Amino acid sequence: MEDIKLKNIKVTDKFWSRYMKIVKEDMIPFQWKVLNDEANIIIERERNDKSIPAEKSHAVENFKIAAGLKKGHHYGYVFQDSDVYKWLEAVAYALTTGEDKKLEKTADEVINLIEMAQEDDGYLDTYFTIDAKERKFKRLLESHELYCAGHFIEASVAYYEATGKDKVLKIACKLADCIDRNFGREEGKIHGYDGHEEIEIGLTKLYLVTKEERYLKLGRYFITERGKDSGFLRKQLEEDKNKQPILIGMNNFEAEYFQAHKPIVKQETAEGHAVRFVYMCTALAEVARLTGTKEMYNACKVLWDSVTKKRMYVTGGIGSTVMGERFTFDYDLPNDTMYCETCASVGLVFFAHNMLKNEPKGIFGDVLERSLYNSCISGMSLDGKHFFYVNPLEVDPKASERDPGKSHVKVKRPAWFGCACCPPNLARTLTSIGKYIYTKDEETIYTHLYISNESSMNLKGEEIIVKQETDYPWKGNVNITVDGKDKEFTIALRIPNWCNKYDIKVNEEAVKYDVLDGYAYISRKWEDSDKVNLNLLMEVQEIKANPYVKDDFGKVAIQRGPIVYCLEQEDNGKDLHLIKLPKNVQYKCEFDSELLLGVVKIKARGEKFIVKDDWGESLYSSDDNEDLYEEKVLTFIPYYSWANRNDGEMRVWIKKA
Q1: What is this structure's pTM?
Q2: Which of 109, 117, 345, 397 is the right S-S partner for 66, CB 3.0 to 4.6 Å?
Q3: Which domain does 450 fall in, by range?
């Protein structure tokens, strides 16, 4: 199974094209100003922690200092370089969708700067080049050296594929060669791994574009070495004569936090820092595919089940606590203290995508879709210039302001963060949205997402043109035109798990198809301009959580198609916790072009508890009088669109009578 090249996919979708346009025209230029400290903004701490560097970004300035163009010290987190690399990757994908000489010139200048900052032996990391040359590769629990390297390699591959310019790829190969000389099982090399997975993803992508087996071998090494010696990261800290931390507080976390408590193929549950976990799984799935290692893929399936069946939110968010931005235990999914970092949702998309490349199963495509349409895009405001680090499912402004345990839960999206990993991560995901639509093998084109596009792909030596037209996610009708060159092959259509009724026709006639693992397979000799129509019935659904999810017991979440909905104070008044849905509630859907740039809103008649005057100043009461409710018309909006108007309460899970 393989991807369709991004340059062969032209996204024409109303919903996603707006995001791609806003990233290219607004988000990328805005982030460039931020990275150069030219934006007149307030940089906020993503949680109540005064140690977070929030004075400026300084990311580009760090490269200028490392390159010898400026004097000074490194500022910001040790992984600040990755902000620039993810920005560059987003630029690469944006250039794939359309020529922009000015943007390309800026990117070329950044690449020149990175080349100047790279050391003669290939080493590349501004913090260590500027302020800690003697500490290279000595504190991998904290240093993020390989994490940053992985992000640069990903960006270099994307830029090379977008422009054909190989300077950036040469820099990446030089860096990968440096890492290869320093890490491995051979005598004299470091027998270890980074504290934050990412290099493994970069190396597999570098292998795919260069076909250099050493890079795949090195990526596999980092995967298989992780957890063999669960004390490696800690031992490095003890052996370092300089006891000054590089990243304060990281040494307080146990091996599970870094997914290093046992070899990856022996791990059975989603543990530790959520972003680290999904990056690890993303790489594990790709190495399993590229090497044909069944043990690795079986481990992927075990970890997939752990996170998606017991530790994932209905929005596709992951990470249950602010303490370490991590998983906790099965069914622990609090709505108002959770983390659900945007980067973690992005990472879950990556994991799902690589699982689909191993095996086309609807369970992977369903999570890919759920996370993209909900928790991922919730991380960005509709103007593309404000961002959530944390994506809560329940918010009370008073609690965010006054409860230290909820200081990470924001009621409005800040312009930037001291730890700014999420905005550029989201930018690179949105500009590359096309690559998640399809995969293919020698016989079959798999359609995972329903996004209007025009694509070309090679199948059996012939160029096949596929055109998809849809008003998804608001409507469930999908039209696919195939120029099949009079060839026999199969088109597989994912039937989403939210869809209880669907219809498939070819050239307006009923057609025979087989359903397997959530995909409808249509096999035939395809002629030019054959038309496939998939009609997915979109009904409003009340989603219940597993009874062991204590925070959601007796409540429902509203979903229509792939979109999860929420109540906001703006439409429904305050004290949303007093609202409940009656047993036989009826829902009415209406597309509102004026609301939140155009959304389907859902109306329903609910009930709101009447707080009687006789409560007075009483905190508790033994009054057993009947509770009274008043009828209230409720308006549900898509979860991703909340916090784009006035500040106020929000909640996803609503009490049900």
Answers
A1: 0.97
A2: 117
A3: 438-536
